Amino acid sequence: MRTFASLLMAVALLTLPAPGRAAGKVSDGVVRIGVLTDMTGFYSDLAGPGSVLAVKMAVADFGGKVLGKPIDVISADHQNKADIASNTARKWFDENQVDVVADLVNSGTALAVMPVAAEKKRITLLSGPATTAITGEKCTPYNVHYTYNNWALANGTGREVVKNGGKTWFFITADYVFGKSLEADTAKVVVESGGKVLGSVRHPQSTSDFSSYLLQAQASGAQVVGMANAGADTINTIKQAAEFGLTPKQTLAGLLVFISDVHSLGLAAAKNMYLTTAFYWDRNDATRAWSKRFQSLPGNEKKAMPTMVQAGLYSAVTHYLQAVKAAGTDGADAVIAKMKAAPVNDFFAKGKIGPDGLFRHDMYLVQVKTPEQSKYPWDYYRIVKTIPAAEAFPSVEAQACPLAVKK
Questions:
Q1: What stretches of 274-327 adopt beta strand conformation (E)?
Q2: For a tag on the chain, would you pick the N or C end, based on fewer CB atoms within 10 A?
Q3: Tens digits of per-residue pLDDT, 296-314?
């Protein structure tokens, strides 16, 4: 009997959770990642299918499982509409048991989904949006703003252009939360750096005819025309500016420009433009190795090099999965705590996620090469300056996220 009792005790001990894993739990037996992005619209080249590919690449590189459970990736097109984004996210949380929503390119869609995720205690990983409100007055406990924000873009490009003699500015601005925020942040930097803003004009998203806006910019006499827009809108602004004769008389400042935009424009049109980026594929051996793998994968039909949004998503999802493993659960509270506690150190960036949810890391001021300077495909940028994380992003205090303010 004593032997039998000892055997029962041994079996009981073996079935107890291991120390530190008592809370170990994966909801529904799957860690599910939802990539909510612009699949077909004017941000589809800089995010879209490439964002989905980057997330799947991160999952595959992680081994396809975490805590012994499979990792599933689903995706949807938010069509750059806040209501579609929030409704899709709510359905994902309620019906598909999605644990984390990634990308959300477009600030309007991000701000629509963040409160839904907070209500459901699910994590959002933002790579495409830019407005500073995301980790400022609109911050939530379960959000990470990963790749860049308007403050970083404004301080990188705006300050350098003023320093190089571009003292007077006129803005052509996308008429929604991202564009307005980018214009405001850049205008502040221009004035603080000794420059002057002569005016601005706003256009709807996905505009095909920029003639009236460019004529107003031309009439202002400003030395610099700041483009507070993105994607196809930026491409069309640059193309039509050349047609209207703005350049080279006036300098164009790309406040949010992606390598996909430069590729679409061609170096003859984009040459010498300054811009700020979080990532460049040709920066070092590690960025080249990862980017060439991304370029060669099935699903990358255009064989494009990754944008900073796509590279940032790979890094963000990898960091998330590492946090799930460290926490022993996919529960949002435990995972977000691990994400903020552990530093990021990979090919994309080195840095740490602050209490406001903003990932602070180095940014890069680059200048687009001329056709003569480019030696091989996608050889588009010359890195002018590395902007340290402490200078590239606003402080926690400056962001004034209510969750991070010390009481």
A1: 274-277
A2: C
A3: 999 999 999 999 999 999 9
28-148+284-357: what fold? Answer: Rossmann fold (3.40.50)
Angstrom distance (rounded) from CA 377 to CA 304: 10
Stated pTM of the model: 0.91
Q: Residue 44's Cα: distance from chain center in Å?
A: 14
Residue corresponding to tokens 């406990």: 141
| Residue 103, beta-bridge partner list | 36, 126
Distance CA 159, CA 164 (A): 9
Q: 35 by DSSP, 3-state: which?
A: strand
For the chain, give every domain's residue range: 28-148+284-357, 151-277+363-389
The three-class DSSP label of residue 168 is: strand
- CATH topology agreement for domains 28-148+284-357 and 151-277+363-389: yes
Answer whether 397's CB lies under 8 Å from 358's CB: no
DSSP state of 25: B
Find the helix or strand (DSSP H, E) in which 125 lies: strand 123-126
User: Beta partners for 174?
Assistant: 203
Number of alpha carbons in the 13 Å side-chain half-sphere of residue 170: 18
Cα–Cα dist 290/359, whole Å? 21
Q: What is the pLDDT of residues 217-255, one digit of tens each?
A: 999 999 999 999 998 999 999 999 988 888 888 989 999
In words, the CATH class of domain 151-277+363-389 is alpha beta
Are the beta carbons of 47 and 105 closer than 8 angstroms? Answer: yes
Q: How far apart are CA 246 and CA 385, in angstroms?
A: 27
